[in-house]
Amino acid sequence: MVADPKTLPSHASVTAARDAFADEHVHLLLLVEGRELVGTLTRDDLAGEHPPQMSALDLATLEGRVIAPDVPLDEAGARMRDTGRRRLAVVDGEGRLLGLLCLKRHGRGFCTAEDLASRRSSQA
């Protein structure tokens, strides 16, 4: 699990969300109020015409995009492969964002904070 994933505030606009997806490595946007996860977005959620200043939260969902921290990794990986989702937000029982579970492109392992830091430094 990546313990400190990038987030956007819950009041982010559709434009801000689209800008975040300009990074091809971003697959799931996490919308938060403080530490509480209140919505997630994929590129598909933003498809179509939406006013630029519309709240991205109006297009967001948590359904099928969150996982509890006590789910075993093999079960989480199987669920992700079965549903075709490579990202799941890890939230506790109160909805607090704990991190991001990130399935690698080949589907045989999970991203680490070191993987992300290495990619960021190579892009700089």
Concise summary:
This is CBS domain-containing protein. The chain is an alpha/beta fold and 124 residues long. It has helices at residues 14-20, 73-83, 113-123; strands spanning 8-9, 29-33, 36-41, 66-67, 87-91, 97-102.
Uncertain parts: none
Return the CATH topology: CBS-domain
Counting DSSP H or I runs of 4 or more residues, the number of helices is 3
Number of structural units classed as domains: 1
Distance between the ends: 24 Å
Structure description:
The chain is an alpha/beta fold. It has a single domain (about 10-124), classed as CBS-domain. It has helices at about 15-20, 75-85, 115-124; strands at about 10, 30-35, 35-40, 65, 85-90, 95-100. The chain has a three-stranded mixed β-sheet, with helices on one face. The chain is globular, with a radius of gyration of 14 Å. It starts with 7 loop residues before the first strand and ends with a helix.
Question: Secondary structure elements and their pairing?
Answer:
Blueprint: E1 8-9, H1 14-20, E2 29-33, E3 36-41, E4 66-67, H2 73-83, E5 87-91, E6 97-102, H3 113-123
Parallel strand pairs: 1-2, 4-5
Antiparallel strand pairs: 2-3, 5-6
Name a few traits of the molecule.
124 residues; alpha/beta; CBS-domain; three-stranded mixed beta sheet; 3 helices; 6 strands; 23% helix; CBS_dom; CBS domain-containing protein; CBS domain; CBS_dom_sf
